[in-house]
Amino acid sequence: MFEKVKDLLVEELSINGDEITEDSELVGDLGINSLELADLVLLCEEKFGIEIDEDSIHKFLTVGDIVDYLSEINAK
């Protein structure tokens, strides 16, 4: 799941893949702004066929937070 999220960040938001780890902070480390986060959420929803609720989006502080959320949703 991490690799899929990393690929989205690299391909869609043009972030250097070498900078991305599960501990990378979306804003602090990767420089993602609120608009880019919204784009990332939409991309995840499309790619994984899910809907991410507003409350969950506010909990996405690191790449790992997104990976954990998607892994949990896919396990259901």
Structure description:
The protein is mostly helical and 76 residues long. The chain has one domain: Orthogonal Bundle (Non-ribosomal Peptide Synthetase Peptidyl Carrier Protein, Chain A), CATH 1.10.1200. Helix content is 58%, strand content 0%. It contains four helices and no strands. The chain starts with a helix and ends with a helix. 13% of the residues are buried. The model has no long low-confidence stretch (mean pLDDT 94).
Chain-wise SSE layout:
Layout: H1 2-13, H2 34-48, H3 54-57, H4 63-75
Helix pairs in contact: 1-2
Tell me the helix content.
55-70%
Query: In the residues, how many domains can be counted?
Result: 1
Shape: globular
Task: Calculate Rg over CA atoms.
Answer: 11 Å
Quick take:
The protein has four helices and no strands.
Keywords:
mainly alpha; 76 residues; globular; 58% helix; 0% strand; Non-ribosomal Peptide Synthetase Peptidyl Carrier Protein, Chain A; 4 helices
